[in-house]
Structure prediction request, 1017 residues.
Amino acid sequence: MATESRIGVDIPRIDAVGKVTGETFYPSDFDMDGQLWMKIRFSDRVHARITRLDTSKASALPGVVRIFTAADVPVNEYGLVIYDQPVLCGPGSDKVGADIVRCLMDQVAVVVAETPEIAAQAAQLIEVEYEDLPIVTDPEAAISPDAPQLHPDTPNNIIKHYRIRKGDVESAWQEADVIIEGVYETGHQEHAYLQPEAGLGYIDEQGRITVVVAGQWVHEDQEQICHALNLPPERVRVIYPAVGGAFGGREDMSVQIVLALAAWKLERPVKIIWSREESILYHHKRHPVRVYTRWGAKRNGEIVAVEATVYGDGGAYNYTSNKVMGNAHLMVTGPYVIPNAKIDTYAVYTNNIPAGAFRGFGGPQGAFVAETQMNRLAEALNIDPVELRLRNVIDENSLMTVSTPPPPGVSIREVIESCALSSGHWQPSANGWQMSIIEQPSDPTKRRGIGIACAFKNIGYSFGFPEQSWATVELHGTTEIESVVVRAAGAEVGQGAHTVFVQMAAEAVGVPIEKVRLLTHDTAETRTSGSSSASRMTFMAGNAIKGAAALALQKWKDEDRPAIATYQYRPPRTTTLDPETGKGTPNFAYGYVAEVAEVEVDIETGLVEVLRVICANDVGKAINRRLIEGQVEGGVVQGQGYALMEKLVVKDGRILNPYFSTYLIPTVYDVPHEVKSIILEYPIEIGPWGVRGMAEMPFMPIAPAIAAAIHNATGVWITKLPMTPEVVVQALRAQGVGEIG
Amino acid sequence: MLANVENIYVPHTIDEAIHVLQEPHVRPLYGGVALHRESSLDVRAVVDLSQLGLDQHRAFDKGFALGSMMTLEAALAACESMQRRYPNARFLAEIIREEAPVNLRNTMTLGDLLVERRPNSILLTAFVLLDAQVDANGWPRFIHDWLSAPDVEVKSALITEIALEHGAENARYTFEKVARTPKDAPIVGAMAYVARDSDGIVNDARLAMCGVAEFPIPLSSVDEELIATNGNIEQALQRLQVNPTGDHWGSAEYRAAMAMVLARRVLNQTINITGE
Prediction:
């Protein structure tokens, strides 16, 4: 038995060599003999009833094998939480309302042909006649009584309305010496993963309908396919090869169901690859939100009340809107003790592109509001922003806004202090924390500033959603363990999950890492691990692997050869929020993060350059610090894009900039000069080796930290994302900054 | 995708190429970037210009010319080779480097650039600033006329080279832009060229901008005022008039405001520094 720990060791990623050398296969790299090609015909209208669908001309094109329409889908619906989206829109299916397209990403027909060119040509030959219906694209307008109702069972288009009623808000305003009001707006964000959607459907050697695709949860993909095709799970197999990024964008279906349908009906391999334009146009986005809020505090900094109304644009289908907006609801008051709160949060259907999971899952929107409000309060109270936070942050004895204590392991105070100190811009003193004055550049058109923000983020599913993770550990050998096989389905989406699976398995069994082999990404080989989302995979799979390893070791001692054990980990239960008061226990664990941003603002043009970011994360226990640093750097840069440049232009439900030349993400030229990772380890008892989760945390407070830095540089608050040069200039000029003499 | 291309002509003389290009639905193939990005289904045949020797640069008594089949990277190398002798070549080299990343510079030609006529191209703006002449179908015409020519005329013309005269030896060139990120293509860009006589009097001044009109434009009225006032920037800027249209890169108001900011910056850098 090896004695050196495999935990906290920076081994290289187990998938690194294949990816770097190009040997690794992604979904679009697979081909089979006799393979056909698929092209999807999407909706041409934002909201309309399809009155006629004529595929005759397309079918007559030589090389076209089959065209599938709504009539071909046995159960024409899907959806991660609510089955509210038709697989194919059009006449002929039993699904009520399936003849209506509600956004431009609705799929109308699927062409399968001998070549991709023929499939593309045929898709354009399909004749679709529409009867236009009124559209609504603003969530506040969508909930008004005279708005068109987009789904028959959802009056006022309200998917979910969360409430918090805590204390006596009206009386509390009387206690407040300072009240800060704000209106905040955030935009859509594109996931921009490197690998556009692609897949291959075929019948495997055991007769199973098999889909090779990239996703975040193989078993959920399988379940969605089974539901729509009305097939039992043993008839459907989902395999993930390498996944070229996800960030929440692959939680919902894209090509999975239609590939399975075509392979099933044609009994031939069928392949599809989306273009970048199709990827941007036809998969969901981060929720845009509009928030009206006011915060009140006493002269000593003690927060007395918060009111907020949050409107989240869910787009045409729910995807995970009811959960995402729950997170925004929870985080719009920040990690602070708020004795009196009145919060209303709405997830709303509109005719825009659906919004769904995206790194932070509603948290970044909430954090932008909460943290900017805190920074504005600090200014109004003339209290240092670090000091103000420390006077209000939660501890284990606090009641959160949901009127229950946080789960054990609250470390937000330590995280903020560590971040502030590590930045070099703050020092504690007898009068509390104080920020230093930053040196200004000699160019009078440039100003530098620093800002701080913090956040908390749930680990694992929230609000009573069933949470579980399975793993199987097999110990092979005779007198000693010669090899370990771990079966764990959890998706490797680029974050390094499989590397830490192997590290944790080696540690749990007590063997060198080289002896561990991972079987994963295949519903035929594994049981569910849940999704790679919610910063949960290391925590959940780690607990499952640890549990399975303990059982397997016991069997080994009992001389089972091979010793095989399967374990299901279930974390402490969570609850939904009370529909009237919002009281509940929505999460079983949190991670905590704080960030300091340093920026330089061109006050004449509005261009903001991020010079330096300091990011402190409490990860509980670092399994592999190098992978954590990678997540920090990636999260910071992705958050910088969200904060400053990623502007999806959507007009009347139509995306106008579906290219990377017009929708900008940060490049190597744009990233901060330095991203400093502070990895803190305050372990939690329920985490494997103390692990929390951290993948989303670095994204959470970066936008408000940058907004605070811009304010520190210029004296102007910006409450709208992204803070493009034009938005910054408008804000500066409104305050008389940067005016031309 | 050039899905409808049925024929590729390979002429061996300029005249032969011009003749073929007079047929409908035929386009010159400068390298492919412009054609590929346009992806027009109307293109039925293309003319391969690789045999015509248009990938060279040449010097003439008052300046130098760059062949239309030169890639941007080749044009960059040519400008770098001349930069010690000619300040405008040094300036052009800087601008070409800013125009596109190296992978695009290695595939895109000057012909592609001149056919595409992108409104925010800084290299085209530099050509406007330097009053370059485009030789197309055997006739030279000033870049500003070329940029405002009808689309159909530009797309089927055979561009052979773009010629630039040397600027004054003591001239200063500057460029400023505002973009959504520091390295992105400009929302608005401004360039200035200022030369002085031996007494220090401004005797030549030019301002050009991109992102404020359909194509990069010269600001001649500002130029005139600068010369007339011996470089009085604020007075000259009163003559700055642009009427941009907005898009999702920047609104009309923002573009107009940035035109003033950037014009002031480039003029300050050329005139004030030159005057030191």
About this structure: The domain at 289-462+579-734 of chain A is CATH 3.30.365.10 (Aldehyde Oxidoreductase; domain 4). Chain A has a mean pLDDT of 97.
